[in-house]
Amino acid sequence: MADRSTPRYTVPSLTTQQGATVAAILQERLNSLTDLHLTLKHVHWNVVGPHFIAVHEMLDPQVDAVRAMTDAVAERIATLGTSPVGTPGALVAARTWDDYGLRRASAIEHLGALDEVYEGVITAHRKAAKDTEPLDDVTNDLLIGHLHELELFHWFVRAHLESAGGELSTAGETTEKGAARKAAAATGSAASGSSRTRTTTTAAKKK
Ligand SMILES: [Fe+2]
């Protein structure tokens, strides 16, 4: 559970209520980014087939960068006078999305699914940046800084899904499983069987 109590103190020039509001926004971002770096590591471990090593090695720097983002977000929450919540049970209880839907699967399927994951994380991060803009410039700047990297990583994923004409194979998809299927179909790869994918999820949109 997020700490919703009003802090006893916060950063100069914000009221404690404003500090609490910004910290609550950041707690959601902490949950999302923690989920993201764990998911990226899960893909690093479960990607198979052609392009294995390219995707396997592409993901570790993303894991490290996103982990660093979680640290900065958690420490900003503490700086604002509130307790950051970083335990796995609290994350699962608070999150509004399902677990990542693929297990062992091809590189192109994971990349299709990760396109949806990044779409959801970035959309929510941009909203958080907008929501903090009138309250706290420092938090807004922190989130904008993350977006520089997150949107770059999203492009790294999407570049694998893009045709020479600039079209994304996952265009119009809103689920990880659907995006994985379309990405695989575009390359002529066989989509993974039902044993490899789990329930369709709209989780990415909510992260
Ligand atoms: Fe590794």
Kindly list the characteristics that best describe this protein:
Ferritin; Starvation-inducible DNA-binding protein; single chain
The overall number of domains is 1
**Largest sheet report:** 2 strands, parallel
- The number of E-state strands comes to 2
Our measurement of the CA-to-CA distance between the termini, rounded to an integer number of angstroms, reads: 17 Å
Shape: elongated
Can you tell me the CATH class?
Mainly Alpha
Low-confidence stretches: 193-204
CATH topology: Ferritin
List the quaternary state of the chains.
single chain
The CATH superfamily label reads Ferritin, core subunit, four-helix bundle
Structural class: mainly alpha
Please tell me the CATH architecture by its name. Up-down Bundle
The helix content is 55-70%
Q: Provide a count of the helices.
A: 7
Bound small molecules, by name, code or SMILES, are:
fe (ii) ion
Describe the model.
With about 210 residues, this protein is mainly α. The protein has one domain (about 15-205): Up-down Bundle (Ferritin). It contains 7 helices and 2 strands. Strands 1-2 form a two-stranded parallel ribbon. α4 crosses α6 (about 175-185). The longest helix is centred in the first third of the chain and has 31 residues, at about 15-45. The protein is elongated and about 60 Å long. The two termini are about 15 Å apart.
